[in-house]
Amino acid sequence: MTHLQVNGQTRKADVPDDMPLLWALRDELGMTGTKFGCGISVCGACMVHIDGEPVRACVTPVSAAAGREISTIEGMETDRIGQAVQQAWVENNVAQCGYCQAGQIMAAVSLLKTTPAPTEQQIDDAMSGNICRCGTYPRIRAAIKQAAGRLGAGGQS
Amino acid sequence: MTATVRLSRRAFLQGSLGVLTLAVTSSGLVRAADADVPKYGADSMPGGTVDDPLVFVSIAEDGTVAIVAHRAEMGTGVRTSLPMVVADEMEALWERVEVVQAEADEGRYGNQNVDGSRSVRHFLMPMRRVGAAARQMLEAAAAARWSVPVSEVRAVQHEVLHEPGGRRLGFGELAADAARQPVPAADALKLKAREDFRYIGNDKVRLVDLEAIGKGEAVYGMDMRLPGMVHAVVARPPVVGGKLRRFDGSKALTIPGVLKLVEIPAFQGAPAFQPLGGIAVVARNTWAAIQGRDALDIEWDDGPNGSYDSVAYREELEAAARAPGKLMRDQGNVAEAWAEAPEAERLAAEYYIPHLAHASMEPPVATVRIEDGRAEVWTSVQNPAAAQAAVAQRLKFEPGKVKVKVLLLGGGFGRKSKPDFVDEAAIVAQAMPEGTPVKLVWTREDDIQHDYLHTVSVERLEAVIDGSGQVQSWLHRSASPTIASLFVEGAKGQQITESAMSAINMPYVIPNVRVETAEVAAHARIGWFRSVANIPHAFAAQCFIAELAHRAGKDHRQFALDLIGPARRIDPGMMADTWNYTESPERIRAQMEGGAIMGLSLALASEISFEKGRVRQSNFHDYEVLRHQASPRVIRTHLVNDDHDLPPGGVGEPPVPPVAPALCNAIFAATGKRVRSLPVRTVA
Description:
heterodimer; A: alpha+beta; DNA polymerase, domain 1; 2 domains; 6 helices; globular; B: 684 residues; alpha+beta; Aldehyde Oxidoreductase, domain 4; Aldehyde Oxidoreductase, domain 3; 4 domains; seven-stranded mixed β-sheet
């Protein structure tokens, strides 16, 4: 039995140690906001934060996540930066099919937590691991800038 | 100089299409038939259109207006935009509208297949009629309640008003009476004037799923969960048409969580929408199923496509493109013009585009439960009726015994109109204890290696351009396996429907034109990918026009505009949209941006190739697609010609094809190097 701290709550999962966190979240805990896209950490659809660091859940065994703070898209509403990013995503009508957007948002939140006013290059570097086949990249960029602007205007906390 | 033969392009196309109708039905069959009365547009689609308000609209006593979205959402916004049209026409307040996703039922809702950029084109007017009829029924109910002439009442924002009497009733209060009113006849419908639209054309309405998507709450096919659900993945033959020779599943069955192995039969005849065959591994969770599959020991019989090799096949296509092919369009005398032209006035070039995989971010996935002679399906498909037909045929059920519930699609691009994966899930569900829900997932490797691929093609163009820079003759010969091979074993050569796309119907007015297709065999499942044969045809034709302009020493843009002629000239924008009815301008922009990026993706990065019959690529590390750092940071879309007197156009596919030729022509302008083979990275 593995104990996972997900969005501030302790969840139990009866899974083998080597099961990727992605499948533990989706199949065992019923948290389907974190998406399956590639399974080999090249598309970013499964991005979560572990102890604040962006991590690909599809290649992270539950044993490596146990006892650490896991944040998923479902927890972003209660995060100041997460909320600002989600709001900017809505205001810029970013999503088309929307499937990759949870991962994109998790990557953007991670970027803004360490880099409150990212340059174009910093956005490229932080976001290029997240694929969108619908081609929403320009709007994602606009939404990140808008969220950064709002968070900056609201003062650093 | 040969005689000019004037032939209306439209008349030619209609005549040609009227002779041979190639119909892909929901069961995946092709009918080639003489059509006495050709049907066009929505009328030519299975199920046609339905505009009955009693089918699409229901109003609760509390005033909540439920509007049916009968077409699947794959990212174009149709689940929002068509219900929005209904709400606007009926004067419903959008914040009091609930969108209800329809199950598969083309008899009830009309056509539900979201292939072909058709949703707004075909259903804008039926949905306007649905809304107008609902509004008029509410007005009639109110007039009867008040015993006043219906001409004195009008619906305004979720209420019906009788201004002379100062009375008003909410939609909820009128719902029961309105439902008993006769549905107005088509000629009695009063559609709104354009200036009265509240939502159409002004972007006030956001996607119904937008907030849920950002919170991770939107439910895609991949997110389906049911009590007692088991998970399956399939080991498929690596070569199309391959079969299982023998397998040993004993090791797989020792993986904790693995429950059962189920053999999927190989397809018979043409592939159509049948599963490829193989062994399904059923497990308690996806991870166990994947591990179980990795532990299978399988020997395949590759069959006749086991030698398919993309390098050798390209040479075959090139040879075919240099020999006469099957005639698709003939105007004037291209052979004579070419033969009579001096060498200096001839220009020929060949262009290559490889196979492409759709690679939607959500791989194919379906959940099926069979119980008491009924099947329930939860899946993300573009063509729900095709999924229903496939499962019904597999289980030998009447279609009415198969419910297909449509969840959000994580992209589609043409892949998810083929329900082979739903059929696989039905086969596995049939092998499990009655009532067991089976979710069958394709991994990314499955998706890349077993796709219904975009065709591969060599396009040969030959032109005669005289000393004054006039194009006298144009030959376009395509050597490319046809989509028809999916449905008819051994079919060779493009069909008229494929050849029409940007080859037969290229926009230039030239005296002598000939379009041919080489009859080459397919060795993979050839499907349709966003904008289909327009991709290779437009790449070749629009690059070649630039080459001709260069030969003539003329400005490319002016040269092309002169060849189009004044009647069909439009103002070119960076991404100009020429459609006539900007119902959701913001979503049109989204489609233009996304289509441009998909076009850049295929121009710069993407390639599927075969070796020993097997796809060489397996995931996004080697099947490359555009990422943030290579994407344009801003894409500007200019919407032109918002003329509501003309029918609406579709926007899903048109932005894709122009990008690759524009890019390659720009590369020539910048570097002097012609790129005639995609993706660009392979020649850089």
